[in-house]
Write a structure and sequence with these properties.
The protein contains eight helices and no strands. It has 201 residues and is an all-alpha fold. It is elongated and about 125 Å long. Helix 2 packs parallel to helix 4, helix 3 (99-111) packs across helix 4 and helix 5 crosses helix 6 (158-172). 78% of the residues lie in helices and 0% in strands.
């Protein structure tokens, strides 16, 4: 017995269907491009975040290392250490100089035998001078404390010391680090001879 097959042929205008399919395809492609762009942005964000995170970790480690140096080499009391730590963080917040650098400066200040209000004054004056472009805050603090110790009989203040250093760097057209090497060896003799610190500068 032969199989009978019935065939149907459907004809019509498919332009609307084609247009809809093309539009859907274009939207899918556009969405894919957007997702690629988002993916690239996320990768860049992750890379920046990783760098910032690494920098923050290093800064925290340097801060702790500097506080450890003060504890081990200066022999500061627990109360002094807490005061030094708080001051270094506060000056970093106020001036924008990193806490790693302000804590390094605090090591030089503590090593010079300064603490309490005098130590805070030196850190503040040195941090502000560094933020203004005078040089590294630790170099300025080291120079300032050397000057203050050499001229302690004349009650040289931290602000006066950094003012003279700023003028010397500006007028001499040199870096604070260059001034430190020259001035460090001159200060004790100049002080003993009665030469004023601003004249030394």
């Amino acid at each position: 017995m032969a199989d009978n097959k019935l065939r149907y042929y459907i004809t019509g205008n498919a332009s609307g269907l084609n247009k809809a399919l093309n539009s859907a395809s274009a939207r899918v492609n556009k969405f894919g491009q957007k997702m690629k762009s988002v993916g690239a942005s996320l990768q860049r964000f992750a890379a920046v975040g990783a760098l910032a995170g690494g920098s923050a970790i290093k800064m925290a480690m340097d801060f702790d290392k500097n506080m450890g140096k003060i504890d081990a080499l200066v022999g500061a009391s627990e109360e002094d250490l807490k005061s030094f730590s708080n001051a270094a963080k506060e000056m970093a917040r106020v001036t924008g100089v990193s806490s790693a650098k302000t804590s390094e400066a605090m090591f030089f200040i503590a090593s010079a035998g300064l603490k309490g209000a005098k130590a805070m004054d030196v850190l503040e004056a040195s941090s502000k001078a560094s933020a203004a472009g005078l040089g590294e805050v630790s170099t300025i603090a080291d120079l300032s404390t050397s000057a203050m110790n050499a001229y302690k009989n004349m009650n040289l203040s931290a602000t006066d010391a950094t003012d003279v250093l700023t003028a010397a760097v500006r007028e001499g057209k040199l870096e604070a680090s260059e001034l430190a090497g020259a001035m460090g060896s001159v200060l004790p003799t100049a002080s003993a001879l009665g030469v004023q610190f601003n004249d030394v500068g």
